[in-house]
Amino acid sequence: MGNAFVKRGALATAAAIFSLSLSAQSNALFDTERQTFRGTGWTFSAGMHGFSSRPDSTDAFYSIANSDGSLDTLHMGSWGHEGHRSLRLGIGFWHVARRPVVWDRWSVEVHGTRNTAISTFTGLVAGADNALALNTLVDSGRSNLTTELTFRLYRAFEVIPDFFLEGQLGMGWDREWGAQFSRTGPDSMFIPRLQPALNRIALELGAGVGVRTRSGRYLRLHATYDAVQLSPFAEEGDGRVQWYDGQFQPWNLTLQWDLLRAKSAIDCAKPPAKDRPAEVLFGSEMEKAKNKRAKSQKRRARKQRKRRRF
User: What is the C-alpha separation between 300 and 310, in angstroms, rounded?
Assistant: First the structure.
């Protein structure tokens, strides 16, 4: 009985700590009270885009049934899949939540990169006389440019002042521009494949580390990958891109530079801003108005004195 109470207490304590970690995010980390910065800004990124084969090799066997019931083997062997890496550059706009509950920031970003992949079959392929002979078939695909438009949500967990870990959840649309796909070799002995899709939508997951280098400036290193491909839906139900017989997993490792826009200097002649109601209103414009009122009051007083004399 005592051990049960101890376990329950430990679970309750852990739940309370987790709850506090979600709700007790430091406002100073992103200036969520809007004392100095606007809470919106630009973000710039540069990094590496990966197009990894998952799996990198697969066995292949294709046979057909003849009219007499016998079987003919058209090919048997294995595929080797290879995806390539490329440079990835991006720009976006980000916003800090005033009162974060689950997500403390969101961003809309566009990136440019390039997808390239090659799949090679090596094995025995049937010839004109139905005899099997060693042969190869090559699938290749590449794009002149791959654009990625992504909406992301972030949550930071401050480790020590100005240093934090973060989790990410995003939804992205990828588009292949100038895509070139080819299949060379004895393709009649293989199952025909449809032309690969040029557009895809995927759910993205990621994690990273960040530092506030100075107020309003943030440097982050984060890694992301496509977790679930929504359109076209992959056979495996995950984020892999299918180019003919190969399946490839997109991932990114990016260095992110975030800038918050500073608020303009306080103009004391104007009414106070809604988010700074306690500002003291004084300034050159108000001093001029004060002097003008004083002069008009003196003129009125002189006129009254002249009337009394007469």
Answer: 16
Contacts of 120 (CB under 8 A, 6+ apart): 79, 80, 82, 136, 137, 138, 139
Q: What is the DSSP letter of 144?
A: S
Q: Which residue in 157, 150, 153, 190 sits closest to 174, CA to CA?
A: 150
Give pTM, 2 decimals.
0.72
Alpha-carbon distance of 142 to 198, in angstroms, equals 11
Query: Do the Cβ atoms of 144 and 178 come closer than 8 Å?
Result: yes
Task: Tell which residue, 175, 170, 172, has the closest CA to residue 147.
Answer: 175
**What confidence tens digit (pLDDT) does each residue in 149-206 have?**
999 999 999 999 889 999 999 999 999 999 999 999 998 899 888 889 899 999 999 9
Q: Which residues contact 67 (CB under 8 A, 6 or more apart)?
A: none
- For 287, list phi and psi in degrees, rounded to 5: -65, -40
Question: 189: which DSSP letter?
Answer: G
State the amino acid at position 301 in one-letter form: A
Q: How confident is the model at residue 101 (pLDDT cuts 50, 70, 90)?
A: confident
Cα-only R_g, the chain: 33
Q: Using CA atoms, how far apart are residues 64 and 72, in angstroms rounded to an integer?
A: 5
Indicate the range of 19-23, 41-45, 95-99, 120-124 predicted with least confidence.
19-23
| Beta carbons of 175 and 196 less than 8 angstroms apart | no
Tell me how far apart the alpha carbons of residues 205 and 211 are, in angstroms, rounded to a whole number.
Answer: 20
Nearest in space to 43 (alpha carbons), one of 264, 250, 265, 254: 254
Burial 80-109 (b: 16+ CB within 10 A, else e): ebbbeebebebebebebbeebeeebbbbeb
Residue 34: strand, helix, or coil: coil
- Spatial separation of the C-alpha atoms in residues 253 and 88, rounded to whole Å: 9
| Contact (Cβ atoms closer than 8 angstroms) between residue 168 and residue 209 | no
